[in-house]
Structure formats: structure tokens, C-alpha cells
Amino acid sequence: MGTTPAAEVDITIEATWRRAEGWALVMASAVMLSSDDSPVLRRIAQESMTELLG
Predict the structure, then answer these.
(1) What's the confidence (pLDDT) of residue 7?
(2) Cα 44–Cα 45–Cα 51 angle in degrees, nearest 5
(3) Orientation angle between helical segments 6-33 and 39-53, nearest 10 degrees
(4) Nearest to residue 54, comparing CAs of 6, 19, 21?
(5) Residue 35: which residues within 8 A CB-CB, separation 6 or more?
(6) Cβ atoms of residues 47 and 27 within 8 Å
(7) Distance (Å, whole) CA 45 – CA 6
(8) What is the pLDDT, as a whole number, of residue 34?
(9) Tell me, what DSSP letter sits at residue 4?
(10) What is the per-residue pLDDT for 50?
(11) pLDDT per position in the chain (54 positions), as tens?
(12) How many CA atoms does the CB half-sphere of 32 hold within 13 Å?
């Protein structure tokens, strides 16, 4: 069994982070759209989106 080249590992790690950021953006968007009765959750979602899109 061979080792994985470092460049391939870097690409995999980068892709994993991009998927995680996409997931977080979707979740923050959903919370913002449905958090009229929860200002705390709305603020968390806003801060998350600012961080992600910042």
C-alpha cells in the first residue's frame, strides 16, 4: 500500500473545508429565515454568515 501524495491530501482537505462552509452557509440561511421568534438564534446565524461571507 502506497502513501498518498501531499498535494492530493491538501486538495482533499481543502474540498472538505469547502463542503463544511457550504453546509454552514445553508444552515445559517435556514435559521435566519425561520428565527423570527428567536433573536438569539438569528444573531448567531447573522454572525455565522458574516464570518463565512466576510
Answers:
(1) 84
(2) 90
(3) 150
(4) 21
(5) 41, 42, 45
(6) no
(7) 35
(8) 93
(9) P
(10) 95
(11) 567 788 888 999 999 999 999 999 999 999 999 999 999 999 999 999 999 998
(12) 14
Are 45 and 32 in contact by the 8 Å Cβ rule? The answer is yes
Q: With contact defined as beta carbons under 8 Å apart, do 45 and 31 qualify?
A: yes
Instruction: Kindly state the cell numbers that stand for 10.
Output: 491538501
Task: List the grid coordinates of 45.
Answer: 446565524
Grid cell of 37 as nine digits: 421568534
Looking at residue 40, its amino acid is V
- C-alpha 12/C-alpha 4 separation (Å) is 11
Q: Please enumerate in sequence order all residues whose Cβ is within 8 A of that of 44, keeping only pairs 6 or more positions apart, or say none.
A: 31
pLDDT reported for residue 1: 57
